[in-house]
Amino acid sequence: MIANTVLPPSLIIFIAAGLLFFIPQRWRLVPIVLAPVISLALIWMTPLGDNLKLAYLNYELLPLSVSATSRVFATIFSLMLLFGGIYAYRQASLLELMAAFVYAGSAVGVTCSGDLFSLFVYWELMAIGSTLVIWAAGTEKAYQASMRYLCIHLMGGVILMIGIVAHVFQTGSTQFGAIALDGFASYAILAGFLINAGAPPFSSWIADAYPEASPSGSVFLSAFTTKTAVYTLMIAFAGNDLLIYVGLFMVFYGIIYALLENDMRRILAYSIVNQVGFMVTAIGIGSTLALNGATAHAFAHIIYKALLLMSAGAVLMQTGERRCSHLGGLFQTMPQTAINGIIGALAISSFPFTSGFVTKSLETSAAAYEGLTWVWFLLLAASAGVFLHAGIKFPWFVFFQKDSGKRPDEASGNMRFAMWVFSFLCLAIGLFPSAFYTILPYPVKYEPYTADHLITQFQLLFFAGFAFFALLPLMKRTLTISLDFDWVYRVFAFKLSKAFFHLYWSVDTAMRQAFLKRFYLAKDYLVAHEPSGIISRSRPSSTMVIWVTVLLSVYLIFHFL
Amino acid sequence: MSAHLPILQVILPLLAAPTCLLLGRTQLLWMFTCGVSALCAVISFQLLHTVHTSGDIIYSLGGWSAPVGIEYRIDSLNAFVLLLVTSLSTVVLCAAKQSIAKEVPESRQLYFYVAFLLCLAGLLGILCTGDAFNVFVFLEISSLSTYTLIALGRDRRALWASYQYLIMGTIGATFILIGIGLLYMITGTLNMRDLAQRLPDVEQAHTLYTGFAFFIVGVCLKLALFPLHLWLPNAYAYAPSIVTAFLAATATKVAVYVLIRFIFNVFGFDFSLSQFPLPQIWLALGIIGVFAASIVAMSQHNIKRLFAFSSVAQIGYIIMGLSLGTAAGVQAALLHVFNHALMKGAIFLAIAGLCYRLGAATMNEFKGLGKQMPWTMAAIVAGGLSLIGVPLTVGFISKWYLVLAFIEKGWWMIVPFIVIGSLLAVVYVWRLVECAYFQEADSKREAGEAPLSILLPTWILVFANIYFGVQPQFTVHATSIATLGLFGATP
Question: Quick check: is B126 in a domain?
């Protein structure tokens, strides 16, 4: 161990991002592999606490503050970058790789920020990096989506910035720690974080933007933005009841939309909202068990969600098709991709012996221990929903179902390698949870493999699985889902919420689109064709003189009135 | 010798200007001008040091003391701006030789150096003097030479821009003169300190206010407050690139200084800023200026014009700071005066390098420049980041102090405007980045990196942008002393 390591891991990743620009393509793998590995080593060699103090203005910057929680997040971000990079490096554009490195580096930076200044800088860098990742897909739709995405995140940044300034002004300290939820400043900061987490009323940006990225781009996107938001929420606002409600909303929002969706990557994007909802709820519960659960779940979620998106990305790469209704039967020629997709799907549905089972159960148990019965019940019900939309729907429609007649080749070697590693991690965490629990921020006294837990989970899964296949004909015909008449009261509730969500989603998208449109319109109106726009036009001197007169008269008139 | 530093500061460039006529060769001219400017910078550094250690310097011209003679008065405020102007002019001049050789015909290069020195002398005179009428005289010196400098531009529209500026500048100067004349009429003195003492007792309040209004409007015209900015974009766009860099970094800053000086040390704080309508009007104009100018900047094709509009927006921030009428607000304004000079100096010098290679700076020329002129483009991007207010650049420091000043005053509602204003800057800077780094060059243009003589001064300023962003102690200290001086004088 190097005693005085003060090299921020994010810096290493930024340097690698710069290097990528100069290195010829065949050597690209070197920085792609080395940077995350060095960053991993640095994270674990850097001692806990504030390792780097810089004076800035009258404040102290702490760009390298490591806590037990931040270690877990920084670790998974580095791992994600490593295997995401390997997955991407052959087919992704240079811009995408560089942007992904900046994006991941700033995500790691957020987790190591001990003060609000550094946090904000990394936060904004992350917004820019991720926008470029989407943009690198190179299509017109991706460009539009990236601009809508940037809109939301710049707005979030403004709100966060205002909150931070106000907070620093009120408390005089820039320390990033627990923030009591009172007053304008704390609410602004909370709103800034929640926007990145994909919380209502701004959840739709995830499903709007992520599926437009390139196959590898969406793998990167799925990991960092929402999970850094989870991290910051956990540090600043753990135990706030408000987050329970927000989280539950996200959970069900994600499920319902994923069930209704036909685009395979959009299904997975909605399921991000759903999964982050679990974590936000756990943060709202705020006990050490719940926080451990949120951390562990974030860790496991990044792996299996990336795995799912890698598998979907491989399918997209090979077939060029995103719609579930046009896919099917791919198991025959892409068996490895299919197996990996299934492992990811099992993990996300918390199938026993996978990472989802040993991590998500920490959260549900935390709800039970805290006596929040209704939260516990809702989370459990949602778990069944997750199995329906992500656990079965995605692999079934893509790899099995009716044969679409497509016979694509298996994904390329680097993609398969990344997928196998992540599958391995899903299973390893699931099979040896006690080893994984040791890296969590708080000591864990939890045994996931009890007979009671196993039986409950299997019951839940089998029932949900049965429901899926029983209703399959119905789903095929309409390509959406409606439920059996046994569950009339649920159908009604379902329809109602569906209508609500639909309204809300369309209003939100329409609002952003309208904002952009107005903005451009106003700009064009004001400027039109340079130099003949209304205020950019070169004016005759007489106009200038008129303004001088106007201003002088205004001063005098106001004074003498 | 050191007792005469205040007057040496002004007299040196003033005498150097006619001396230029004796030196025939441009090489010699350039070195001479650079030397004079550098000497002024050294003097101003010495002055700032003296002021900070042993208090204000009062220098009576020709030994005639104040009310009768003209006095020069150096305090922590003008010493700070003096240092800014002289050091920026020196850096800009270092880059001037090749750029001017390219953009101004051989026969006219002499005029450039003469006019430059006269302009510098005028600006330094405005800063040094403690006499209201003297301000007007030096203002005219600097303005007239500025018209010449702008007219040297090789675009024929430069003449027209210069002519328009001449008309507007003359109106502004006339207004200032009317203002000073009215003050003289009711007090019988032209010395600033004397004026400050006698003004509170004058009985003709209406005359005083009229004089005040004329003066303020005149100065606001010179500093290009929206909507009196109309002369500025064309003047900046068509002047030779070096002139643009010089004017953007210094001229409007000196006008801001005049505004602050008269508001605090002549009219008095209570009279000017604590009563309706001035602060409210300024705040409104500042915000509108930031938004309108930034939005216009977004769709400019001429890059010089783009950044000229951005200058108008930045003036908006400065005026917003002043409109607060608090020490924190004035400090934020002063910080932005300094920091904006650094940003725009860096950006316009980089554009000078660009014009040297490409002949013009329009959006089309920017395509593919990221690869062809990496250092020049990096300088523009760095300057742009600073303009946006990215942390670790000077832009962040001034935005931060401005936001804090507004929060301290309790004007929460204004804070989002400042932050959103920065986002608008993101848009127009991004357009450049997109063009330069993500688009391929149109033709088979072979553009190399800008010559080292331009690149080096550019990067000195870029470095200053980052240095004073990371280590803002000097600027923060100097501005806080200057602000203390202002508020100490008029409690």
Answer: no
Sequence-distant (6+) residues with CB within 8 A of B470 are A56, B392
**Residues counted in chain A:** 561
Decide if B167 is inside a domain: no
Whole-angstrom CA distances from A250 to A156, A263, B261 are: 18, 20, 57
Weakly modelled stretches of chain A, pLDDT under 70: 1-5, 472-498, 500-502, 504-505, 523-537
The rounded radius of gyration (Å) of the Cα atoms in chain B is 21
3-state helix, strand, coil in chain B (%, to 5): 80, 5, 15
Mean pLDDT of all residues in chain B? Answer: 88
Residue B487, domain extent? 277-491
CA-CA distances (angstroms) from residue B335 to A248, B124, B252, B253, B402?
Answer: 47, 19, 14, 11, 9
Residue B149 belongs to a domain: no
Closest C-alpha to B77, from B360, B377, B424, B335: B335
Closest chain B C-alpha to A298 CA, distance in angstroms? 30
Chain B neighbors of A554, CB-CB under 8 A: 277, 281
Query: Of the candidates B295, B407, B420, which has its C-beta nearest A158's C-beta?
Result: B420
Comparing CA positions, the residue from A9, A22, A261, A222 lying closest to residue A113 is: A9
Spatial neighbors of A149 by CB under 8 A, at least 6 apart, are A130, A131, A134, A205, A208, A209
Distances (CA, A) of A183 to A166, A167, A187, B25, B315: 10, 9, 7, 68, 33
Residues in A touching B278 (Cβ below 8 Å): 555
Q: What is the spatial distance between Cα B138 and Cα B148, in angstroms, rounded to a whole number?
A: 16
Residues of B in contact with A535 (CB under 8 A): 292, 296
CA end-to-end distance (rounded Å), chain A: 76
**Total CB pairs under 8 A between chain A and B:** 111
Contact: A555, B164; criterion CB under 8 Å: no
The candidate with the shortest Cα–Cα distance to A31, out of A85, A84, A77, is: A85
Q: Give the residue among A20, A55, A504 at the shortest CA–CA distance from A250.
A: A504
pTM of the model: 0.82
CA angle in degrees (0–180, nearest 5) for B400-B406-B411:
145
Which tokens go with A430? Answer: 């699931």
Contact B303, B363 (CB under 8 A): yes
Q: What is the pLDDT of residues B24-69, one digit of tens each?
A: 788 888 999 999 999 999 999 999 999 888 888 888 887 777 777 8
Q: What are the start-end ranges of the H helices in A198-287?
A: 204-209, 215-223, 225-237, 241-260, 264-285
Let me know if residue B287 belongs to a domain: yes
pLDDT tens per residue across span B257-296: 999 999 888 888 878 776 667 888 899 999 999 998 988 8
The total number of structural domains in chain B stands at 1
Q: Say whether B407 and A527 touch across the interface (CB within 8 A).
A: no
Alpha helices for B188-204 (secondary structure H): 192-198
Q: State whether A162 and B171 contact (CB < 8 Å).
A: no
Q: How far apart are CA A277 and CA B359, in angstroms?
A: 57
User: What pLDDT is attached to residue A501?
Assistant: 64
Q: Best interface-test mutation with A: which of B407, B424, B479 has the largest number of A CBs within 10 A?
A: B407
DSSP secondary structure, B390-403, as one string: -TTSHHHHHHHHHH
CA distance A112 to chain B (A): 17
Which residues in chain B have Cβ-Cβ distances shorter than 8 Å to A94? none
> Burial code of B5-34, b = ≥16 C-beta within 10 A, e = fewer?
bbbbbbebbbebbeebeebeebeebbebbb
User: Residue B467: closest CA among chain A residues belongs to which residue?
Assistant: A56
Q: Is A33 exposed, middle or buried (0-12, 13-18, 19+ CB in 10 A)?
A: middle
